[in-house]
């Protein structure tokens, strides 16, 4: 008979949500064990934010999340806010700064956040089992049986915090969705979010020449709008504006991109027509948007000899409208290989919003990215991990 260890709470996944949940439960005097197949905890925290971890956002609120039920996240986000997490960061003496749009980053390294969480787990008496495969999870007479590569466990309560499918190379698996389905939970359609776009085959050759060009844009798709930077790459479009809008995009949808959101291009061209009538409209536009972009658009129109003096107001407005409402249908996205998050997940209708507990199986909780709650870029996904993790840890 293999050894059977006993724990009050078993947390599957030593990521952001799993670790903070373990801390909360451990502080309440429960015996807590966290299991992960990775060799180190918090691997996604380590690589996040370019190694500095964008750990929350000053402006985080329910409006920053996508879910089949947008109201589900409200309770957890209110119970443990970005300011509560910032207080912990401050109490640890971790230096941080606001980069832009309320996004808070560590001054030094994302490891500061991992060290804070592992230190808190140690202080709360949490047992951390790394390099451990989860083989099987079953409901038992009392609680749950969890079979792992390092032995079998009996746990009164089980918390699934195994994250999403993004970046399999970093240890992401669909285990959380499988466990949910096995216990009778609905899992909404999952797909890659916060992910770069790839060119459609008819654009790839000519547009990849713009690789490296960055421009501030207003990107729109399916009712969402983001005013941030866009980056042309060899393979397609990236940068914060594209990552954000990718979460709202579905195969075949059209993107509408204002390439000069702060300017009235028609007005600028008409003024230039008065002062420099012999000038090319594309020279003027190349002083407003990046020159290489203007040159590329010019090459696409096939009318490089045109002079401003020859242009009617209607012709000017047509060119301006093309840049303010540049439209394209991406070929696809880079998928889970580079996506920051997985959209969709464990259906929130079958979870208690205050405790993250299953409405079907008492004692079973789902937290973090595995749940159908996905944040915008900018620290919101970690805030959801903190808020949902604390909600479960305090009520377990
Ligand atoms: P997370 O993925 O963190 O943890 C899941 C854990 O479960 C992992 O440790 C994994 O090893 C383990 N696991 C999975 N399957 C298992 C199995 N079968 N057996 C055992 N263990 C298993 N967000 C943000 O707010 N600010 C940012 O700066 C960034 N930056 C960023 C960069 C990159 C490159 C990525 C990919 C993602 C981000 N994110 C982000 C998103 C953020 O990392 C993500 O939303 C959270 O890490 C989710 O936390 P979870 O704890 O739910 O999952």
TrEMBL record:
Protein name: Flavoprotein, HI0933 family
Domain of life: Bacteria
InterPro entries to which the protein is assigned, alphabetical: BaiN-like, BaiN-like_dom_sf, FAD/NAD-bd_sf, RsdA/BaiN/AoA(So)-like_dom, RsdA/BaiN/AoA(So)_Rossmann
Cofactor(s) needed for function: FAD
Domain RsdA/BaiN/AoA(So)-like insert: 191-341
Stretches assigned to the RsdA/BaiN/AoA(So)-like Rossmann fold-like domain: 8-394
Keywords assigned: FAD, Flavoprotein
Organism per entry: Hoeflea phototrophica (strain DSM 17068 / NCIMB 14078 / DFL-43)
Pfam families reported for this sequence: HI0933_like, HI0933_like_1st
């Amino acid at each position: 008979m293999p050894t059977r260890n006993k724990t009050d709470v078993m947390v599957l996944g030593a990521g952001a949500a799993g670790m903070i949940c373990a801390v909360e439960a451990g502080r309440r005097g429960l015996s807590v064990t966290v299991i992960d197949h990775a060799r180190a905890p918090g691997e996604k925290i380590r690589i996040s934010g370019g190694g500095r971890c964008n750990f929350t956002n000053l402006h985080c609120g329910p409006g920053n999340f996508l879910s089949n039920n947008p109201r589900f996240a409200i309770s957890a986000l209110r119970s443990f806010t970005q300011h509560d997490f910032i207080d912990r960061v401050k109490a640890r003496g971790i230096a941080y700064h606001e980069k832009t749009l309320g996004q808070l980053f560590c001054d030094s390294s994302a490891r500061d956040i991992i060290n804070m969480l592992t230190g808190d787990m140690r202080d709360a008496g949490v047992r951390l089992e790394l390099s451990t495969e989860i083989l099987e999870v079953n409901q038992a007479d009392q609680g749950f049986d969890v079979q792992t590569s390092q032995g079998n466990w009996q746990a009164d309560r089980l918390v699934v915090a195994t994250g999403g499918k993004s970046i399999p190379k970093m240890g992401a698996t669909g285990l959380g969705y499988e466990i949910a389905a096995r216990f009778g939970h609905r899992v909404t359609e999952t797909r890659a979010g916060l992910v770069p776009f790839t060119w459609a085959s008819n654009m790839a050759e000519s547009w990849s020449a713009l690789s490296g060009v960055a421009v501030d844009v207003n990107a729109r798709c399916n009712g969402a709008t983001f005013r941030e930077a866009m980056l042309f790459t060899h393979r397609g479009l990236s940068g914060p504006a594209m990552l954000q809008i990718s979460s709202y995009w579905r195969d075949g949808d059209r993107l509408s991109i204002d390439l000069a959101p702060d300017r009235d291009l028609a007005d600028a061209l008409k003024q230039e027509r008065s002062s420099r009538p012999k000038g090319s409209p594309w020279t003027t536009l190349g002083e407003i948007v990046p020159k290489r972009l203007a040159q590329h658009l010019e090459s696409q129109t096939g009318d490089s000899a045109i002079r401003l003096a020859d242009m009617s107001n209607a012709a000017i407005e047509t060119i301006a409208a093309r840049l303010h409402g540049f439209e394209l249908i991406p070929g696809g996205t880079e998928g889970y290989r580079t996506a920051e998050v997985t959209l969709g997940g464990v259906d929130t209708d079958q979870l208690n919003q205050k405790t993250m507990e299953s409405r079907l199986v008492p004692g079973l909780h789902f937290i973090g990215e595995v749940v159908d709650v996905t944040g915008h870029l900018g620290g919101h996904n970690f805030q959801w991990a903190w808020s949902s993790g604390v909600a479960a840890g305090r009520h377990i």
